[in-house]
Amino acid sequence: MKRYYIGIMSGTSLDGVDAVLVNFSGSSFSLQHTSYLPYDQSLQSALLGLNQCGENELHRAALLSNRLSALYAQAVTHLLEESMINPEEITAIGCHGQTVRHCPQPESGYSIQLVNGALLTELTGITVVTDFRNRDIAAGGQGAPLVPAFHHEIFAHRDIHRLIINIGGIANITSLPISGYVSGFDCGPGNMLMDAWCLKHTGMAYDHNGSWAASGRVIDNLLQHLLSFPYFSQLPPKSTGREMFGLDWLQSCLAGNEAARDVQSTLLQLTVQTIADSVQTCYPTARELYLCGGGAHNSALIDRLQQELPDRSINRTDALGIGVDWVEACAFSWLAQQTMERAPGNLPAVTGAAGSRVLGAVYPA
To answer: What is the pLDDT of residue 107?
Structure first.
């Protein structure tokens, strides 16, 4: 019996909407169709502006939630048209929403993802599941990362200790051991700082294949200064976002006379080094690494990571059956299924929550 779900992800990179149609039949998982809709510059700028305090934030956030929901609905329409499936055949949409604040401090923690679930249900005629993070935070967890539970469900191997490394705006790692607990955490910046620096100095949204970074040199004293930031030595569970690693943070670490391409090269090395340090410190026995997210397209990043981890194989999740651009959207389709079946979606060993919890808020069709 086919059970169709749609997963929608828009991540910290603020580049656009990834959407997938998947089929959960019995214990099997099948990715059916994919859709990507880029953010236009005005939407991207407006969302970026909400990552910091500003005037009339509540009004701006509400309007952006509606605007995003209309874009999410367009992605759903594309998927249904491609697959020739009616909305009535979709069990639910799992929509992560667009994170604008992630502050999971103990007792007063919260995480805000913009999406109007009620509007998305009205626009699509499909049940929507949103707000996945806050139940975990209410239970004392970080609310992130949430994808390790999906990684375990789809990518685990009974005889091989694998690591899944998602390099989006933030880089995070999932450990899938042969036995014992699944674990994972945010390593630090992924593409976020590199993209912001590249846009500022070249006008390009990102550094294609890391070629600009490769043309520069690593500024060793700057790299060591960046690596001394307390987050990197903090023990898991931990998660982070733009609040901690934005351009303001980077600017505060610069002398002001650095060549822009050398800073870019240093930022690339920061991403590589924090991933490699996480692997070597926390998972020394793991020998198979699988990359996903936008950073998996960055050949300079992959080359440097392999240099830092010469005794480990580094591949992309394509080799495991899901393309690097679609893993997170697939994860939120799976999390929606967990919610609809009243099954837990978090892993307390990853997030630090007091226990397993059913995640998400449901807007029935």
So the answer is: 75
